[in-house]
Design brief:
The chain has helices spanning 2-14, 34-50, 77-88, 109-119, 130-139, 154-168, 184-196, 212-225, 258-265, 272-279, 302-305, 312-330, and strands at 25-26, 66-71, 92-97, 122-126, 144-146, 175-179, 199-203, 229-232, 243-246, 287-290. The protein is an alpha/beta fold. The protein folds into two domains: 9-153 and 319-330, Rossmann fold, CATH 3.40.50.1370; 155-316, 3-Layer(aba) Sandwich (Rossmann fold), CATH 3.40.50.1370. Helix 2 packs across helix 6, helix 2 crosses helix 12 (312-330) and helix 6 packs across helix 7 (184-196). It binds phosphoric acid mono(formamide)ester and norvaline. Norvaline (NVA) binds at residues 148, 183-185, 247-248, 251-252, 291.
Length: 334
């Protein structure tokens, strides 16, 4: 009994300082309130202005902390932006490449969590199944951050919102259209829009709509904020939308469905015509957004992704600032 008490006291002591509402990390936009999302975005703007450069307000704020990056799938933006961003904050990052063996294969997810909490102060994980994140979170005494799962991509959405605020000055009165597969990126964006009062329209082929439970949750949130959530098959429903967002038609883990999916989506390729439909009635042409990686010539044409209306590299840039803001909150440093 004494030994057990000592062990638990040791665990308490080694835990990093925790950040209130964000103490557990972030698994899903669905877990946040609109005010909590705004809190991160306000900090993200300040973190970006500061640049986290030596002598700035945030440089070294996470000194002495170690973060595990556990990735079952490939990544350019998420891996780079977390690694570089956390380094700017003074934290130490360890990358665990899990591409060749899914979590739980060599040892139980629970045991993974219970080992990692002994050495590191947070886990940033990219997984196939969202349930694996929940399992890690349930068993680790350290925060867990979703770096993409089949259900949500919350860090992407935080960067996307930061990008929209920079482009339009605020989110007030904005309408966002999502065209393509009702996937993880669509889920997080729709939920955040609903919670922030931004009207959202998803146009998808039949059978590729966002998940029912996510639409239900977004619709309930939108009811509170006055936003509208529209799930449609008609591209005409994106008229007057300030941003057109698309993503790959085949997400990581769905490669076996490539043949089946391609044909279903071709009419939703975001080209100049679709951008013109969105821009109808607006003072300025609609912006184009994509989380990347893009499959040029599939979900988007070169002329659209390379146009002056394209925000894709700003979105990539803001991954780092939005995530740094999130991590400062997670560790209770802001
Ligand atoms: N947008 C995004 O998450 O990119 P990566 O898959 O390269 O991390
Ligand atoms: N929906 C894509 C996003 C990649 C960043 C995927 O899950 O593969």
């Amino acid at each position: 009994m004494t030994a057990m008490m000592n062990q638990s006291a040791t665990t308490e002591l080694k835990m990093a300082p925790r950040g209130g509402a964000f103490a557990g990390g972030l698994l899903a936009i669905d877990d946040l309130t609109g005010d909590q999302i705004r809190e991160i975005l306000t900090l993200a703007a300040s973190v970006k202005t500061d640049g986290c450069v030596l002598g700035g307000a945030y440089a070294g704020a996470l000194a002495g902390l170690s973060v595990t990056m556990l990735f079952e799938k490939p990544s350019l933006r998420t891996r780079m932006s977390f690694d570089i961003g956390l380094t700017k904050l003074g934290a130490h990052v360890v990358y665990l490449d899990h591409a060749s063996a899914r979590l739980g294969a060599r040892e139980a997810v629970k045991d993974y969590a219970k080992n990692l909490e002994r050495w590191t102060d947070a886990i940033v994980a990219r997984v196939f199944k969202h349930a694996v994140l929940e399992e890690l979170s349930a068993h680790a005494a350290i925060p867990v951050v979703n770096a993409l799962s089949d259900l949500e991509h919350p860090c992407q959405t935080l960067a996307d919102l930061q990008t929209l605020i920079e482009r339009y000055g605020s989110l007030d009165g904005l309408k966002v259209a999502y065209v393509g597969d009702g996937n993880n990126v669509c889920h997080s964006l729709m939920l955040a829009c609903a919670k922030l009062g931004v009207s959202f329209t998803a146009v998808t082929p039949k059978g590729f709509e966002p998940r029912f439970g996510v639409v239900k949750s977004a619709t309930a949130a939108a009811h509170e904020t006055g936003a509208t959530i529209t799930i449609s098959r008609s591209i005409d429903d994106i008229k007057g939308h300030h941003a057109v967002y698309t993503d790959t038609w085949v997400s990581m883990g769905q490669e076996h469905q490539t043949g089946l999916r391609g044909g279903e989506f071709t009419h939703l390729q975001v080209d100049a015509d679709i951008m013109a439909i969105a821009s109808e009635g607006l003072e300025e042409p609609a912006a184009f957004m994509h989380c990347l990686p893009a499959h040029r010539g599939e979900e988007v044409t070169d002329d659209v992704i390379d146009s002056a209306q394209s925000l894709v590299y700003e979105q990539a840039d803001n991954r780092m600032w939005a995530q740094n803001a999130l991590m400062l909150k997670v560790f209770g440093k802001q």
